Amino acid sequence: MIVGESGVGKTTVLRTIARLLPIERGTLRAPDSIGWLPQHPLPTFDPRWSVFRSVCEPMILAGVKRAEARTKAVKLLRSVTLSNMQWDLRPAALSGGQMRRAAVARALAGSPKVVLADEPTAGLDPEAAISLVDLFREMTALHGIAVVWVLIGCS
Questions:
Q1: CATH code at position 48
Q2: Count of CB atoms within 10 A of residue 84's CB?
Q3: From CA 16, how far away is CA 148, in angstroms rounded?
Q4: Which of 120, 131, 142, 150 shows its CA 20 to 30 Å from the CA of 7?
C-alpha cells in the first residue's frame, strides 16, 4: 500500500513499477505480468467497444485464441458481478462502480501476478467503495495475485 497526500508522486511510483516511466537510478524487480487499474478508468476504454470486447481484446492481442479469450472474459465479468446486459454496453453507459468492476476484469484478463490500483475507490460512494474493496479481497484470494494500492492519506 502506498499512502500519501495529493501530489507527492504515488501515481508516478505505480507508473514506474508498470514500466510506463523510466527508472533514473537503482533497480526495480517486478513481474512481467502486471495488471493496471487506473484512477479514472473511463478514458482507458475504447468508447466504440462494448465492455465484453474491452475485456477480450487485450487477451487476443497477447496471442490468446479468440474462443479462449471469450470464455475467460465471461468468467471474469461474472466474477466481478456485472450482468450479461452490462457486457454489451459501452463503458460510458456504466455507473462509477460498474466501470471500476469492468476495469478490474480487464486488469485481471492478462493473468497478472500483481495489480497496480491507483486510488481505486476515489469518487465512489461508500457502498460502492466497500463493494470494490470486497471484490479485490475475493479476486486476490481466487487468482493468487498481489495488489499494490495507492490511497490518499490525511495529515
A1: 3.40.50.300
A2: 10
A3: 13
A4: 131
